From TrEMBL:
<protein>
    <submittedName>
        <fullName>MBL fold metallo-hydrolase</fullName>
    </submittedName>
</protein>
<dbReference type="InterPro" id="IPR036866">
    <property type="entry name" value="RibonucZ/Hydroxyglut_hydro"/>
</dbReference>
Length: 456
């Protein structure tokens, strides 16, 4: 095999396999569709898990702990002797991966290179260094920057510019509207162009090739998020980046697609046999502003009914568990520094709401309220999604939560201008001081399945 080239193959989302001189490494390995519960591959693919079980990677690198980058169910398909290099500030994740049976688990440190055969992989600082990292990959005299999910601050950009020249940049091309869809009646539509700083930063890096990276998923086929979540199409990205960087070539790599990068060219290579395209692959995103979101009552009907015990878990949490938790989680803004009346509406599979009113005091005390004081905050959520957050580790991105979708009195509306949507009391109680809920739920299932298999 040639030693003067790297073969780069797309797995899914931010997942890639790199091969050079017989050494194969991978990044952010996701072998599931859907992944993160409701992220459906776009374009559609399926995975040959039997082939994946026979794969031998010389190393796997994971950029951060989010479940669309670090999934234990995907890692479970890999040989347990595979060296895993993970960027994460939380020791719990390393413990979970070791409980899964991996024996060579390493914590990555920024700017400290890892050598794997001909590859040198260097984690670089992302804008939120407590969460994310980026990867610089060198091999065969070539230099590739995998930006993963990150935005780049000016200090890091200057350092990366000094690491050039760059042969290829894998650039996260979606400005996903994860927070805007939570409060669509209060969010403005995305601007109809790429962020100006993206074009400036790409110009500074001046790579030969640019791959629109990350994303490659949509929500369920019925979901209004598919028209409101993803503002940027592949065509728009190629058009704007091509105009701003005429010397660069924008290259779309769909799942399974491989390309051979050398000093003078980028050429097609045989696709990954274990990532199998399904249906049309030349698909693109269509953005329709806030896309007339359907009522939460309608959304809730798409989910299966909870069992009696699951429903009881949700109701008990709303009546008691949430009240106990509220005092432990603080808001980022000062909106809740005075007493507010909060209404939480939980919708069952038939679209029927059970509503709870809470009085939230500035000292962190919360209690159920039967009064007539005007509301100061509202939250709506399908019961199935609240249960999934409580017991299955489901993340905020797929909760179909709806916040402040009403008109309050004039004084409250003025105060809300300075409030942050993630100050929502339910968001804080579910997510503000928890780590790795999704992976912990995966680990429980996997260990239970392994135990059942041994007993069987």
């Amino acid at each position: 095999m040639s030693t003067d080239a790297i073969t780069i193959s797309r797995i899914l989302h931010a997942g890639y396999a790199f091969e050079c001189a017989g050494t194969r490494i991978a990044f952010d390995t996701i072998f599931e569709n859907p992944f993160s519960r409701n992220c459906h591959a776009f374009p559609d693919v399926r995975f040959d898990h039997e082939q994946i079980r026979r794969l031998r990677f010389d190393a796997v690198f994971i950029s951060h702990f989010h479940d669309d980058h670090c999934s234990l169910e995907s890692l479970d398909l890999l040989d347990r002797a595979t060296p895993l290099y993970i960027y994460c500030m939380f020791g719990e994740l390393f413990d979970m991966v070791r409980q899964l049976g991996f024996s060579r688990v390493h914590a990555l440190a920024l700017d400290e290179a890892v050598e794997v055969g001909p590859f040198q992989v260097v984690p670089r600082e992302a804008m939120d260094a407590d969460v994310d990292s980026m990867f610089q990959v060198r091999a065969a005299g070539l230099n590739v920057l995998n930006v993963v999910d990150s935005w780049i601050d000016e200090g890091t950009l200057a350092k990366l510019a000094g690491e050039g020249p760059w042969d290829m940049v894998l650039w996260p091309f979606q400005t996903m509207r994860e927070l805007e869809v939570l409060a669509p009646s209060r969010a403005v539509a995305a601007p109809p162009e790429l962020p100006a700083e993206w074009l400036a930063q790409l110009g500074t890096l001046a790579p030969r090739y640019i791959v629109p990276s990350s994303c490659q998923f949509q929500q369920e086929p019925w979901s209004w998020y598919n028209r409101a979540f993803f503002p940027i199409s592949y065509a728009q990205f190629a058009r704007e980046v091509g105009a701003a960087l005429p010397a660069a070539q924008v290259v779309r790599l769909d799942p399974s697609v491989s390309a051979r990068l050398d000093a003078t060219s980028l050429r097609p290579a045989p696709p990954l046999s274990w990532v199998i395209p399904v249906g049309a692959q030349d698909v693109d995103y269509v953005y329709e502003g806030n896309a007339a979101p359907p009522p939460t009552a309608d959304i809730a009907t798409h989910f299966a009914p909870l069992t009696a015990s699951q429903q009881a878990r949700v109701m008990d949490y709303c009546r008691a568990g949430l009240l106990e938790k509220y005092g432990d989680v603080e808001a980022a803004s000062d909106y809740f520094d005075e007493t507010r009346i909060w209404q939480l509406s939980v919708y069952d599979h038939e679209g029927r709401a059970t509503r709870f009113r809470y009085r939230l005091a500035p000292n962190g005390v919360a209690f159920l309220d039967e009064g007539e004081a005007p509301l100061g905050w509202t939250t709506e959520i399908p019961a199935a999604k609240l249960y999934a957050a409580l017991e299955l580790g489901e993340s905020l991105t797929s909760m179909y939560m709806r916040i402040n979708d009403t008109v309050f009195d004039a004084e409250t509306e003025r105060a809300l201008l300075d409030a942050d949507v993630v100050d929502d009391p339910l968001i804080r109680c579910l997510f503000s001081d928890t780590f790795g809920g999704y992976q912990a739920a995966q680990l429980r299932r996997l260990l239970e399945e392994a135990g059942s298999g041994k007993q069987g």
